[in-house]
Amino acid sequence: xxxxxxxxxxxxxxxxxxxxxxxxxxxxxxxxxxxxxxxxxxxxxxxxxxxxxxxxxxxxxxxxxxxxxxxxxxxxxxxxxxxxxxxxxxxxxxxxxxxxxxxxxxxxxxxxxxxxxxxxxxxxxxxxxxxxxxxxxxxxxxxxxxxxxxxxxxxxxxxxxxxxxxxxxxxxxxxxxxxxxxxxxxxxxxxxxxxxxxxxxxxxxxxxxxxxxxxxxxxxxxxxxxxxxxxxxxxxxxxxxxxxxxxxxxxxxxxxxxxxxxxxxxxxxxxxxxxxxxxxxxxxxxxxxxxxxxxxxxxxxxxxxxxxxxxx
Length: 312
Hints:
Elements: H1 5-24, H2 34-42, H3 49-57, H4 60-70, H5 84-91, H6 93-108, H7 119-136, H8 145-154, H9 157-165, H10 167-180, H11 184-192, H12 196-206, H13 211-218, H14 233-252, H15 257-270, H16 275-296
Helix pairs in contact: 1-12, 2-3, 2-6, 3-5, 4-5, 4-6, 6-8, 7-8, 7-14, 7-16, 9-10, 9-12, 10-11, 12-13, 13-14, 14-15
């Protein structure tokens, strides 16, 4: 387990605040339906793959999601699958459970009460980041692509938690950020005492995601501050997560493209990626993003090619 005692001690107060927020909020994102049943199944020592398959098959949307994941590019060379049982076996029960949690979040929160929060763009960005993370996983010491996908998909779940748990307060915060141009995480800390990355890390840990991955989400905005070894997998994962987010912003939010490109190309250097590789990942992600959105039933949002240089 990655040890980051000094960094964690510095943030214990904000983590306690995030947990208090979670306990006090009635409408936070939380797994339901089959996802909740799969979480219960994970705690049953007598449960087997047949039990998981039965639950997955009871949800057509989850079945399609699992089949799409099991036939993803990282399994190139393996026989295409059309059978849910084999798809679950290929992915493993733990990943199926986390995929179910992610899909449950998407199905529950495609709209909401928070004025100014763009739910469609939130999920479009999260999906784009997930696909990009899957492609960047091989730069992270062979980290599994399916785990990287989920990491990208849920990395910003803290922002959705603000929008659902405190919709009126968060709508005011969004207006404040828009008017002042202030960094969203900085304003979140001033208003709530913690930011979306801290809240996301606590939620993911509560849902059974590995602590080391929750720590990566916690430090995604500033990987260098996390106390990770410079050549460690968590450091590279946090950097890849930051890069995936920049690729999403540059492709799905044209107004943010110049800043996103500058951040992306700088982060890519730290991951030993050249600009051509960054553009290739962005383009391939954009192409796959449409297919994934159709599988999940997400509305399409406007997208553009990622800038060729940081100056554009």
